[in-house]
Amino acid sequence: MIRLLIPDVSGLPRAFWLLFASAIVDRLGAFGVVYLSIWLAGPDAPAGVTVAAAGLAISLFSLGGLVGGPVGGALADRVGRKPVLVGGLLATAASFLVLGQMHTLATIAGATLLVGMSSNLGRPAMTAAIADVVPEEHRRRAFGLHYWAINLGFAFSAAAAGALAPFGPALVFGLDALTSVLAAALLIVARERWIAFAIPRR
């Protein structure tokens, strides 16, 4: 039973664990989007923001993701995995900082669209990077662990969003931005030679 509950992590290279660590840090701090729905639908929402308008603004996050994902995938193949991973994380941090300073429905909606685009830029690059650095026989476990990290991070960040709600949007979005910067820093300072960070060979 214990062997069934504890995942097998043997055979996975250090490069994968650096990607895994970056994903965990980023997802643990991904409470900004959850908080956005709490903020816009709550009593502290900016003046003139109705529940219907809040739903429309939040839906722009998904719309941005529909754009950011394909764009990120195309860039990952053209310029390499690392630039897209790091660039996506830093762009996410910047867009959350912008969102924290918005006070009207139109500007909040625009910033939310940017958050959706930037936060999805690196997802295809992450998947491709894992496939690049993990031998084929270990990829199934690697992707399973990455999926586990995403879900663990979301469980924590969803709870954190409620706990942080009283502190206001500037602080909450600022903390989310900070975790994205930290996740990017893990990839920037990595000293080993990353196959996934080179321009893919065709």
Structure description:
With 202 residues, the protein is an all-alpha fold. Helices cover 75% and strands 0% of the residues. It has helices at residues 2-5, 14-28, 32-41, 51-79, 81-99, 105-133, 139-164, 169-188. Helix 4 (51-79) runs parallel beside helix 6. The chain is elongated, with a radius of gyration of 18 Å.
Helix and strand arrangement:
Blueprint: H1 2-5, H2 14-28, H3 32-41, H4 51-79, H5 81-99, H6 105-133, H7 139-164, H8 169-188
Helix pairs in contact: 2-7, 2-8, 3-4, 3-7, 3-8, 4-5, 4-6, 5-6, 5-8
Report how far apart the termini are: 44 Å
Question: Quick one: how many beta strands?
Answer: 0
- Globally, the shape reads elongated
**Mean of residue pLDDT values:** 86
Helix percent band: over 70%
Major sheet attributes: none
Uncertain runs are: 1-5, 198-202
Quickly give the structural class.
mainly alpha
Annotation keywords:
202 residues; mainly alpha; 75% helix; elongated; disordered N terminus
What is this entry, summarized?
With 202 residues, the chain is an all-alpha fold. The chain has helices spanning 2-5, 14-28, 32-41, 51-79, 81-99, 105-133, 139-164, 169-188.
